[in-house]
């Protein structure tokens, strides 16, 4: 059994910063990509940032230059540093990871989400 647990969400004023964390635990053989998604009220879930096991990182255009994704592979943890937040960043943020629980078993896992609220 694998679990992803997010933390670090909260309320902040526009221009502020937050750092989200997501730690994977359980029967983990290895972790491939880890990513952050978000879903605002009434909107579809969107990919915010992703990080491959090889170190490649990608961002949605709306957060480039403001958000930074990073990983601590020894801790099975991915972070999302969010700076210069705007009300448009308000959403539930979800952690996602491609995790091998064995050599041949690769599955996609989701955290339960953490709410980020940015006020103007």
Notes on the protein architecture:
A hairpin with a 4-residue loop joins strand 7 (67-72) and strand 8. The protein is mainly beta and 120 residues long. It has strands at residues 2-7, 10-13, 18-26, 30-39, 46-51, 57-59, 67-72, 77-82, 91-100, 106-110, 114-119. Strands 2, 4, 5, 6, 9, 10 and 11 form a seven-stranded mixed β-sheet that branches. The model has no long low-confidence stretch (mean pLDDT 97). The chain starts with a strand and ends with a strand.
Q: Helix count, per DSSP?
A: 0
| Structural class by sheet pairing and helices | mainly beta
Summarize model confidence as the mean pLDDT: 97
Query: What proportion of the residues form beta strands (DSSP E)?
Result: over 45%
The radius of gyration over CA amounts to: 14 Å
Q: Return the string of H and E elements.
A: EEEEEEEEEEE
List low-confidence stretches.
none
The backbone outline, from C-alpha atoms, is elongated
- End-to-end distance, in Å? 41 Å
Helical content band:
under 10%
The largest pleated sheet is described as: 7 strands, mixed
Beta strand count? 11
């Amino acid at each position: 059994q694998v679990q992803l647990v997010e933390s670090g969400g909260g309320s902040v004023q526009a221009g502020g910063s937050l750092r989200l964390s997501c730690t994977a635990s359980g029967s983990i053989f290895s972790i491939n990509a880890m990513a952050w998604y978000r879903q605002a009220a009434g909107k579809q879930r969107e990919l915010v940032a992703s990080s491959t096991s090889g170190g490649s990182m990608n961002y949605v255009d709306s957060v480039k230059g403001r958000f930074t994704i990073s990983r601590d592979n020894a801790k099975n943890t991915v972070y999302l540093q969010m700076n210069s937040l705007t009300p448009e960043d308000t959403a539930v943020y979800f952690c996602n990871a491609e995790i091998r629980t064995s050599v041949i078993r690769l599955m996609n896992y989701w955290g339960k989400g953490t709410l980020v609220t940015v006020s103007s």
